[in-house]
Amino acid sequence: MATGASQRLYDGVAAVETMTRFAIAVLALASGVYTYLGVRSILDGSPTAIFFAAIIYSASVSVGIYAFWSYMARFFPHITTHTGRAAMLGVMAIGAVMIMAMSSWLNAAALAGSAALEQHLAETVEDYTADLDQAHQNALAAQSLLPDIQRASERFAQLALSERQSGALTGTTGSGSVVQLLSQMSAQMKDLENGINASREQVTTLFEQGQKRLETMRTLVSAPGAIEPRADQFSSEVVALTGVIASLGQTSIAPSIRRAADDLSLGFIAPVADGGDADLVDRQDRVMATVRASVAAQSKVLSDAADEILARAPVKERRFVPLSSAEAVLRYASDFIPAWAGAISIDLLPGVLVFILAVVHGAIRKQEERMPFAERITAAELVQAIELKRALAESGSDLMEVAAELEAQKTTEEANNITNLDPRIRPKDRPHEDR
């Protein structure tokens, strides 16, 4: 039974030997093809130079993979010592790492390079979208001050109107110094309001331009066709969008509001009271002092609000870095695990065949070790033994005599070796050749 099982394993190994070579050759060729596609995506130069360079590299990879796994399939299953097995496994591990370094990542680039590059462009769009939104919010932050400025402007204007018509502040109607001062403060607040409104229109225009750039970039990411032309156009859109974001950062009116708020208090110049009598002059001075205090309070509020806006983090300058498909596959490797698994499997699948052969040969050896010698001898070896015995019988020699002569020759050779090693031994001490 054991002999039959070993023989069937022998027959199986012989049957799949051609298939094993064919499988290794096909896998090596497939790896070379995908390596060629991956190499072309990272080389620069003329089309002819790129073609020949990629062909030479991919051919070298195919030959190297085929030779490596052929050697392993030929020798590894027949090594029985633990030291030899460990050494061969170490060589196999080193070879597998080298194969992945020179081929697998290029195979992955050929399988998923376009998708990885599209993902890089898509993430870039998301980053620039966030930058545009942040720049837009920073530019519009000053708009929150518009209601306060409008209320202050209206309040000063109403006080001036009331003073002119009914003398609500000084008790004397007419357009005196108090009305002049209140009208002046209202005009300054109105100027700030107009500046904020103009800034809002400019910010809106720039934001719409940025949105159009982003829409074009999203279209390029999802558009069909080759990725390289789309990536080039994408880079142009990125440059334009960067300019829009920078313009938004410069259109913020918060610094202008901060300076205007300081001018309200620091540059406050009250007109000289122009009343006709001392009592009216005194009342005008008191009202203008009150207006000065109100203006100082309003200036403090605007300055604090402007400082909060200016304290916001500015949009950091972002630099778009174009990637090749091979670089994109490496950067986003975790998102393309199936492609990496397929690329590595093409290169390392022959290792599975090597281990299968090693297991089969190990099973054959264990089965043969448990069999007696008479069962381990093959028919061919038995036929050779019978022919040798017949030849000896025909020559008239006995097997025992032949064995005795061989032993005597062996003894004589050993004695001669001893004499050659120590010349002090006398010839009479040497064993006789007849012995």
TrEMBL record:
Q: Which UniProt keywords apply?
A: Membrane, Plasmid, Transmembrane, Transmembrane helix
State whether keyword Transmembrane applies. yes
Q: Has UniProt tagged this entry with the keyword Membrane?
A: yes
Q: What are the start and end residues of every segment in region (Disordered)?
A: 410-435
Q: Which residues cross the membrane?
A: 12-37, 49-72, 84-106, 339-364
Q: Where is the composition biased (Basic and acidic residues)?
A: 423-435
What is the protein's given name?
Answer: DUF4407 domain-containing protein
Question: Lineage of the native species?
Answer: Bacteria, Pseudomonadati, Pseudomonadota, Alphaproteobacteria, Hyphomicrobiales
